[in-house]
């Protein structure tokens, strides 16, 4: 096991067999955070030995998603398929040491064995037919059959480890059958490759989903057969979707990059994901820097975490509110450019973002507000138009339009023009402000009307007030 003086080295080892979702990326956040919190090294490893299902497109999405979230890796990406010669070299060492043996049991024979075991209410497992033992006579080798190679799992005793999430775990070796570690064509299997990788990359802490718990005792036995001590393990509880099912693409999970496209901030995503299985007291909103200063493996939760999009939007809204107006404008600008809007370099955007950020929970919603200030026309909420823009208010609107045309274009002058019209027609502020808002920005619900009008601009306001 690792000691306090050993440099921390963690890894994220996804299989590129589909898009990466929030449940997957949380298994990258924690090892990344642990490495960063301990001045360690974070390795990205692509476990692409499933040739039929792996794709470069899936690799690209993994790397793109991690880059967006700022989960930078120090080494890699390392591809398992490029390490086949190394795996075969270690496999030969295990064979020479007597830890591996050929097994000629066919798939049909194995299936029949499992059916008999299940019928007898036994755990289905390989029965060691081809495992050599002193005084044992093995069956005759069938002609023309390429064997698999099986790892000679220790018999008797237990595999024990102190899991940083689950506590002490002990599994009897007699519960483990002899694992296939190389296929008939000689290609090594997952559990073997993982051990070789973790040894070669000097991984000190394996932080991964608890769907790997059953693999861990097998991997520990392979570590020890190779004369190595295993790393520290932390098996994270499952992330559930909003329906309480395991998060997966089959259950409606979205690619991580879709959250970027929907206007979520990477800082908010890191904040939200960190809280899906880890806590620092009652702190709900925190920065990336705070997370890294606080993070350790001692406060990882044992219970499954449930994704809640409403909570994610709330967390994102808090980060939007806290952002500097200029920094927010820098993020909103590309969204507006993609909509084909002009005049975006006139200096108004930071002020617009500052005015509306308290009302928004994503960058897309903020961009929707900002678009109103740069678009040639405004789309009105028809129900609000019918309610507030009535013929009875037309005379006051015309008078206001005339006063605004002649006034200096600043908040104080605009506010003064409103007061004069309110006094002249005996109106209350909402009676005039509501229709003005609907006509000029499309909805009756906005921040201070004088601040909004100033930012829209005199020319646009003059035109829009006539748009009845």
From TrEMBL:
Subcellular location per the Swiss-Prot or TrEMBL entry: Cytoplasm
Keywords, in A-Z order: Aminoacyl-tRNA synthetase, ATP-binding, Cytoplasm, Ligase, Nucleotide-binding, Protein biosynthesis
Keyword Ion transport attached: no
EC number: 6.1.1.17
GO molecular function: glutamate-tRNA ligase activity
Motif range ('HIGH' region): 14-24
EC class: ligase
UniProt catalytic activity: tRNA(Glu) + L-glutamate + ATP = L-glutamyl-tRNA(Glu) + AMP + diphosphate
Main location per the UniProt record: cytoplasm
Family the UniProt entry places it in: Belongs to the class-I aminoacyl-tRNA synthetase family. Glutamate--tRNA ligase type 1 subfamily.
NCBIfam families listed in its UniProt record: gltX_bact
Protein's UniProt name: Glutamate--tRNA ligase
